[in-house]
Design the sequence.
């Protein structure tokens, strides 16, 4: 099938490469000419395991271009996968979606199915209908569907090929869009959930909200277990064995980050306030996350009262297997440590410190240089490379004995056996 995907970001590119590998002919559009040039040279502009390799395999079925008009004209199916970043008030910025509609509406002269992949507030697809009507496009010439993605960075390809569900939101009376999407996704084994447009839009927010809630819940319990000398990992294990709860997303630590959870929860909060709905859990989930770093920083200050000492931070990215530092909890952690006066040094296997933070911390190309002479070693990202460290060598290289485990990946007893002081939350 001839398919046009607008947006060569995280979602759009993973979708394009996957659909091309399934045998569809894909035109993947992005306004950023630089990115298009990189993609045409086989270079993926962000780190996602397996994507470059699959692109290589599917190369003959995919074209990268900035020409929206030509691509829309020659495609019957158009996926919109552009960004919807948070605005200052928390609401989702839909200007990229509207700009795409402006670029393409004159090409809707034969029947098109427009599928919204971007995360958008409930009611957006309805507004898209209104917008296209205002622009003079006949509603008989197109159908709109909401088909949100649930991809995890670092596992995006796996999630695209093995989704736990595929959610499709359609208009009442639309009998063609679901079979069309099912034929596009033929070859992918998945459970379909069919709902109305706003239903699909809201499912995406509810999914992320629930996962973020699990993380904030366990972080709150970690605060309690800290006071009662109880290991939070025992609690996560025990409650996770209850199938009604499930073991995933119960890892306590410095909190969640990334391009989705913080943005989507803020957007949902904006909507809830606007509609005057009382939803106290939503605010609490964010408040716990926003204050989680403080608990660690207070413990560091207590153990390291000389505020000019060198501290080594392992990890900049919001989680492992990505180079994405958007809303990473490592950023406020570094900012707080630098503001206190500590001499902050950082290492990350993929993430790069942003220019505006270079005065706050020094990034090193190796773990050894970062740790050298430090008084305290702090784990901020759970990269597999950090799981088992040569503690004897680290002790020799360091100038102090404090180890802060912000992800609960280290064995406290083992670390203490080297003479270190292990600092965590909910880790007696
Ligand atoms: C998330 C959703 O999982 C995905 O379905 C959606 O489409 C986009 O947002 P992603 O942002 O890639 O995906 O990250 P995810 O793996 O969900 O982790 C989010 C954050 O939560 C990370 O900072 C991670 O370190 C943190 N986390 C996760 C915890 O602190 N504890 C956990 O138990 C799990």
Sequence:
């Amino acid at each position: 099938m001839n398919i046009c995907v607008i947006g060569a970001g995280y979602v759009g590119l993973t979708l394009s490469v996957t659909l091309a590998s399934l045998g569809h002919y894909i035109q993947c559009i992005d306004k950023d000419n630089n990115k298009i040039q990189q993609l045409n040279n086989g270079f993926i502009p962000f780190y996602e395991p397996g994507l470059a390799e699959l692109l290589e395999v599917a190369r003959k079925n995919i074209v990268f271009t900035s020409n929206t008009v030509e691509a829309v004209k020659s495609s019957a199916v158009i996926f919109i996968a552009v960004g919807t970043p948070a605005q200052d008030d928390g609401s989702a910025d839909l200007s990229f979606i509207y700009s795409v509609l402006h670029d393409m509406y004159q090409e809707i002269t034969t029947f098109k199915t427009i599928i919204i992949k971007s995360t958008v507030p409930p009611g957006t697809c309805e507004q898209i209908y209104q917008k296209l009507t205002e622009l003079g496009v006949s509603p008989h010439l197109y159908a709109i569907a909401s088909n949100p993605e649930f991809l995890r960075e670092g596992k995006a390809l796996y999630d695209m090929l093995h989704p736990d569900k595929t959610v499709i939101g359609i208009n009442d009376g639309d009998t063609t869009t679901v079979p069309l999407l099912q034929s596009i996704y033929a070859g992918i084994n998945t459970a379909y959930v069919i709902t109305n447009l706003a239903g699909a839009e809201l499912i995406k927010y509810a999914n992320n909200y629930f996962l973020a809630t699990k993380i904030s819940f366990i972080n709150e319990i970690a605060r309690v277990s800290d006071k009662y000398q109880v290991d939070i990992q025992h609690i996560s294990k025990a409650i996770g064995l209850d199938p009604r709860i499930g073991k995933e997303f119960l890892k306590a630590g410095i909190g969640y980050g990334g391009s989705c959870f913080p943005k989507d929860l803020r957007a949902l909060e904006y909507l809830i306030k606007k509609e005057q709905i009382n939803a106290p859990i939503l605010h609490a989930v964010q408040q716990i996350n926003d204050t989680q770093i403080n608990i660690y920083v207070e413990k560091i200050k207590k153990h390291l009262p000389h505020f000019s000492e060198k501290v080594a931070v392992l990890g900049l990215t919001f989680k492992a297997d990505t180079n994405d530092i958007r809303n990473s909890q490592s950023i406020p952690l570094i900012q707080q440590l630098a503001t206190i006066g500590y001499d902050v040094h950082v290492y990350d296997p993929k993430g790069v410190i942003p220019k505006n933070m270079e005065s706050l911390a020094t990034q090193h190309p190796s773990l050894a240089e970062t740790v050298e002479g430090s008084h305290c070693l702090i784990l901020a990202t759970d990269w597999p490379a950090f799981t088992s460290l040569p503690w004897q060598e680290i002790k020799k290289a360091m100038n102090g004995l404090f180890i802060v485990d912000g992800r609960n990946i280290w064995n406290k007893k083992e670390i203490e056996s080297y003479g270190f002081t292990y600092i965590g939350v909910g880790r007696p």
